[in-house]
Structures are given as structure tokens and as C-alpha cells.
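Q: what sequence does this backbone want?
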């Protein structure tokens, strides 16, 4: 099963290490929210002057594959940046172009982590093994919060584990 702390830690690490996001304790560019929170929240302490990564909690489905329980999860994150003047279409285009490139870099890093995990050269989280670059979808996002625009990236992750059924737990 997906460990949600590992999921959150992985994306927080990406947001911290990727210089164009630059999350830190003093400049907050990372948050974890459900889609309802994102759509209804007022501006928080997130710094949207430069791109921020907002991670959604994943949803998923179970299946049985290769004699194991497959826990496939559908995750998503947003890359958002503020447009100072909502009516400035040139600025909006520049923000949309920039946030798409930032999101593509995060997706590319996930793909590289998957590849290096299987070569044994990097310790990527186990849930990355089911990431498929060709399944990534992205959608325009905004305006959200205070004139923020960007992109929402959807992806599949997951893992296979032994079945969790234990007959001793049942009467």
C-alpha cells in the first residue's frame, strides 16, 4: 500500500531541491491539499510570486496482479504562480508557459527517479515503480487564490504487495 507520508515527503523534497520552486521554511512554495480545499481556500501563506507546487492527496483502486495486491493511485499536483495584473494577457501567457515548463521538469524528475531506481543507482520511493510518463495528463488551472494561474498534472503511481487478508482476524 502507498505510504502517504512517503508520498508527501517525496514531493516536498522535489519542491525543495528544484531551484525554480525553491521551497524552504522561510519561503513556502509547497502545500498538500484536497481538491475541495484548493478550490475553496483563500490565499494562504504560500508564496505565489514564483511557482509553487500544491500536491493533492491521491485516490486509487485495487486489483489483483501477479499473485499480489496492486494498489494503483491517481495523484495530481498543481504548479501555480500569481499574475499581478489579471487583465495583462501577456503576463498571463508568460506565467502559463513558465509553470508548464516547471511542471514538466517535476514530471521528468519522477521519470528519471523511476529509471534510476531499477538500475540500483538511486533510492527512489517504491511507489514510483508504477509511474508511466505516457499516462501523465495536464490541464490549465486558474484563476485560483489571488490571480494564480498554471497547470494541474495528473499521474499514476502505485505498488504491488502481498494480500493483506489474515484469516485469524475474522470470526
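A:
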Amino acid at each position: 500500500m502507498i505510504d502517504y507520508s512517503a508520498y508527501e515527503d517525496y514531493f516536498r523534497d522535489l519542491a525543495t531541491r528544484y531551484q525554480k520552486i525553491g521551497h524552504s521554511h522561510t519561503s513556502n512554495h509547497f502545500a498538500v491539499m484536497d481538491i475541495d480545499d484548493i478550490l475553496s481556500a483563500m490565499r494562504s501563506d504560500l508564496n505565489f510570486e514564483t511557482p509553487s507546487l500544491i500536491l493533492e492527496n491521491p485516490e486509487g483502486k485495487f486489483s489483483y496482479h501477479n499473485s499480489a495486491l496492486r494498489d494503483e493511485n491517481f495523484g495530481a499536483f498543481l504548479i501555480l504562480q500569481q499574475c499581478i495584473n489579471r487583465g495583462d494577457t501577456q503576463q498571463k501567457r508568460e506565467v502559463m508557459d513558465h509553470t508548464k515548463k516547471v511542471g514538466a521538469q517535476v514530471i521528468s524528475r519522477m521519470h528519471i527517479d523511476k529509471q534510476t531506481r531499477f538500475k540500483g543507482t538511486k533510492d527512489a520511493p517504491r511507489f514510483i515503480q508504477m509511474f508511466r510518463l505516457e499516462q501523465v495528463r495536464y490541464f490549465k488551472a486558474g484563476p485560483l487564490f489571488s490571480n494564480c494561474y498554471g497547470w494541474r498534472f495528473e499521474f499514476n503511481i502505485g505498488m504491488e504487495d502481498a494480500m493483506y487478508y489474515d484469516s485469524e482476524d475474522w470470526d
